[in-house]
Design a protein that fits this description.
Layout (H helix, E strand, L loop, with lengths): L2 H9 L1 E7 L2 E12 L5 E10 L8 E6 L4 E9 L16 E5 L1
Antiparallel strand pairs: 1-2, 1-5, 2-3, 2-6, 3-4
Length: 97
Amino acid sequence: MNPAICSAIRSKQTISFDYNGGSRTVEPFCHGATAAGNEVLRGYQIIGYSISGIHSGWKMFRVSGISGLRITDKHFYAVRPGYNPDDPLMTIIYCHV
């Protein structure tokens, strides 16, 4: 479990990090682990790099691929449409909005 991610989720603060070759800013919503044991983050990317070319929207990130994680001073208040706190891809949920 990544305590910084859970702290950002609890305080509803956006996070910025590098992932797959680019910088991203994300509203973190759910942090947990998959059945394969991979630690993951489900978040709504609001801006930044994307291999797929889709720069905003719901994304799943492997925590092992995140570097330079920082909690920003920006807060988010609304729950985005499509959010599921019982994410079916996570068998363990550490923290969620």
